Amino acid sequence: MDVSEDAAALVNTVAENKAKHTNSDYLRALLARRLQKIIGRPSLNTYLQIVEKKKLKNCPINREDVAAAEDTFGPDVGTLKGKTVRTSQGRVRINLLPIPALIMDRYRHVTLAADIMKVNGVTFLVSISRAIKFGTVELLANQKMTTVLVAIKNINNLYKHRGFKLDVLLMDGEFESICSELAGIGEFESIRGELAGIGITLNTVSRDEHVSDAERHIRTVKERSRCTFNTLPFKKIPAQMTVQMVYSANFWLNVFPVSVR
Known about the structure:
Elements: H1 3-9, H2 14-18, H3 23-38, H4 44-52, H5 63-73, H6 77-83, H7 101-107, E1 109-119, E2 122-129, E3 135-140, H8 145-161, E4 165-171, H9 173-183, H10 185-197, E5 201-204, H11 212-229, H12 239-255
Parallel strand pairs: 1-4, 4-5
Antiparallel strand pairs: 1-2, 2-3
Helix pairs in contact: 3-5, 8-10, 9-10, 11-12
């Protein structure tokens, strides 16, 4: 006897359970299970109370029939699937470690490099800070000025929460030209003014130059994302899976310190 036969020997079938009862008892058990489904699949204890206390008028079954149904057919499948809840997991302990004073003294004022990245048609604002090399990825619903501004403010709040001060934001010169085409020069300057209002100086490089820190981080994030995608058993994935794949790649890049040469 192999392992599968041993496992099968431990499983009771309906036919085996049926053999324990007479034909009339089996039919009444069948009726009891059918009635349980009709009245909305109450739990076993609730069902027994309904039957015993005659809450269901002209009910043709009794407690023994309900017990026979449970013994013959086991728990109702619909009840198991509909009422079984996810088991509670242990609480995640969040422990924010204090940033060493040496780092805060030297690198409290942050210069941030940022650029627009697209993965499978999904747009992100990717940034990485110089010196401390902390990367962020913000999903963009579109490339409008207001949307990009909200993303930049979210990044600023993230640094501010840990005691850093975002002073300079470096962006590609192409970003300024695209923004000027979409919203006009005046709108772009208003964004620059809003950032200046919260202490951030927006600096865009010339048209033929690129922000190397942001370009390199984008390339790394895309490489990590491709590695994950190529191991998936799908040829196409939904946009939300793409977003989470990019977030995961950026998260693990931040986990391990970057070697500075």
